[in-house]
């Protein structure tokens, strides 16, 4: 559906914990001990969770409630450092292992046999030796000491790319989505290093005397990354400029931190673990506030499947968290404008005590004065995702803010984040980055045209073959427009989308991961 005069926002944000204290409890689901990031899920089925420990990969088909051995043990492995699955084939996995000489191994038959693809490596303190390029899922990176390797075929073969001067022993690697040339590496004793040329050369961007065990890149907020510090005063770091500069989060000063992860569909949901402090910390508002949970033993990694399914690898094994009470989990909130009428839409993942939503509006120029413009009845108690639509006519052209006030049956309430909507005609021709990206199977593409013109919007694969035509020579008025693209019939991969409007053309890249 194409809409006119649109500023389109998806704020994947859960309500903050201020009004609703949530107690996370942890349960050991599978014993083991693997210092690294030995947890992952099936990209096509989030009910399937994998956990590696010792020489064995375990699989759960019930979202981490129970585990059983998957395939055969990996010969010679003493510790599974990390594992990566592919959306192309659920029989395929690569694993980095500690052995007499550290290795990367690959299976193509669900773990029945394992083939060594990189031998004589030295992972040592390298907790998470492998990382994929989010925009090119078959591209995998690893390091042995300060030697940087790249695989173009999902770990079947490896090519030496460069060396990193100043490294001692790396701990983690991360690649930025849509900026694959920028790669971060955490070191064991010196700090954080950064490459802007696919790992050929490296520059130190953060200095510390302690270890940087884990780095996590936000798949939704461009250029944002988080990193943990162990030793050197400890702490927790954030970067918003692609890892060039880092800021310490005061809440964690003096704490030796280890694992960190960001919810793939919700940038505001962040989790980090304390190595020896028996605590896992959760933020639901982008790191402004933190919920402290208790979990004994040392933290090795944290893994978020979604905001209701979270895991921690501890020294005794893999733990799963349960949340006994979640009033409302807001999973999307957006707005569009058609002929000066504002259409709001939102979805909830869970509602366990939801009486109603009250919709409030303010002028963008006066953020302190809100008025109630309507309400919608909630669904009470449900774990089924729900969608809501509401329309409002401000009456005057301009910029407005909207927010939701979620009210419980006992009168307690909490506000959502705000979204901004404008009805003003755009002054530039623009094609926005699709959102979300990567996506599966739908995404939204927004664009602006400054005058009425004939528009075509097409999707191409990387060979230049047109695979879909979203808008076909349709005359559209000047304004901000958005269209939803459903890629259910396409395979995972990188595609191009091209906007032709009159004699002007723009192209951008999108990534489908199934």
What is the count of DSSP helices, taking H or I runs of 4+ residues? 0
Class of secondary structure makeup: mainly beta
Helicity, as a percent range: under 10%
Beginning-to-end CA distance, first to last residue: 23 Å
Mean pLDDT rating:
86
Q: Characterize the largest beta sheet: strand count, sense, and whether it forms a barrel.
A: 7 strands, antiparallel
Shape: globular
Residues in β-strands, percent: over 45%
What ranges have pLDDT less than 50 throughout 5 or more consecutive residues?
1-22
Number of E-type strands: 42
Characterize the structure shown.
By secondary structure, the chain is an all-beta fold. Helices cover 0% and strands 56% of the residues. The chain contains no helices and 42 strands. The strands form ten sheets. Strands 29, 30, 31, 32, 33, 34 and 35 form a seven-stranded antiparallel beta sheet that branches. Strands 1-28-27-26 form a four-stranded antiparallel beta sheet, with no helix packed on it. A hairpin with a 7-residue loop joins β8 (102-107) and β9. The chain is globular.
């Amino acid at each position: 559906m194409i809409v006119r005069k649109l500023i389109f926002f998806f704020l994947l944000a859960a309500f903050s914990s201020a009004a609703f204290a949530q107690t996370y409890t942890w349960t050991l689901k599978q014993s083991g001990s693997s210092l690294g990031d030995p947890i992952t899920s099936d990209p096509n089925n989030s009910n399937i969770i994998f956990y590696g420990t010792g020489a064995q990969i375990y699989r759960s088909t019930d979202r981490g409630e129970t585990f059983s051995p998957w395939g055969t043990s990996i010969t010679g492995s003493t510790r599974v450092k990390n594992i990566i699955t592919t959306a192309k084939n659920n029989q395929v996995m690569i694993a980095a292992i500690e052995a007499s000489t550290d290795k990367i191994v690959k299976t193509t038959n669900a773990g029945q046999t394992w083939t060594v693809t990189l031998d004589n490596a030295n992972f040592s303190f390298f907790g998470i030796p492998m990382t994929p390029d989010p925009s090119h899922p078959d591209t995998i990176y690893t390091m042995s000491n300060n030697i940087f390797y790249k695989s173009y075929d999902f770990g079947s073969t490896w090519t030496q790319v460069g060396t990193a001067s100043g490294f001692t022993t790396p701990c983690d690697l991360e690649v930025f989505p849509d900026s694959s040339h920028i790669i971060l590496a955490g070191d064991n004793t010196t700090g954080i290093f950064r490459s802007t040329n696919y790992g050929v050369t490296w520059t130190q961007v953060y200095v510390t005397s302690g270890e940087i065990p884990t780095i996590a890149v936000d798949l939704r907020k461009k250029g944002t990354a988080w990193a943990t510090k162990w030793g050197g005063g400890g702490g927790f770091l954030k970067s918003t400029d692609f890892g060039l500069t880092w800021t310490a989060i005061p809440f964690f000063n003096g704490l030796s931190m280890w694992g960190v992860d960001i919810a793939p569909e919700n940038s505001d949901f962040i989790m980090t673990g304390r190595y020896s402090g028996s605590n896992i910390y959760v933020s639901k508002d982008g790191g402004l506030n933190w919920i402290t949970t208790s979990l004994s033993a040392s933290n090795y990694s944290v893994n978020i499947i979604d905001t209701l399914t979270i895991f921690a690898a501890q020294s005794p094994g893999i733990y799963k968290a349960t949340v006994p009470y979640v009033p409302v989990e807001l999973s999307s909130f957006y707005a569009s404008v058609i002929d000066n009428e504002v259409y709001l839409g939102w979805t909830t993942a869970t509602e366990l005590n939801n009486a109603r939503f009250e919709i409030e509006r303010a002028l963008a120029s006066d953020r302190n004065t809100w008025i109630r413009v309507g309400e919608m009845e909630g669904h009470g108690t449900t774990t089924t995702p729900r969608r809501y639509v509401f329309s409002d006519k401000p009456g005057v052209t301009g910029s407005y803010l909207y927010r939701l006030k979620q009210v419980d049956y006992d009168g307690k309430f909490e506000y959502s984040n705000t979204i901004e909507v404008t009805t003003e005609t755009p002054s530039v021709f623009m094609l926005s980055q699709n959102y979300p990206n990567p996506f599966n199977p739908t995404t939204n593409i927004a664009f602006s045209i400054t005058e009425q013109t004939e528009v075509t919007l097409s999707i191409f694969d990387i060979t230049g073959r047109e695979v879909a035509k979203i808008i076909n020579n349709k005359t559209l008025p000047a304004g901000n427009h958005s269209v939803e693209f459903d890629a259910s019939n396409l395979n995972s991969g990188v595609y191009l989308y091209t906007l032709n409007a009159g004699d002007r053309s723009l192209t951008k890249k999108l990534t489908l991961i199934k």
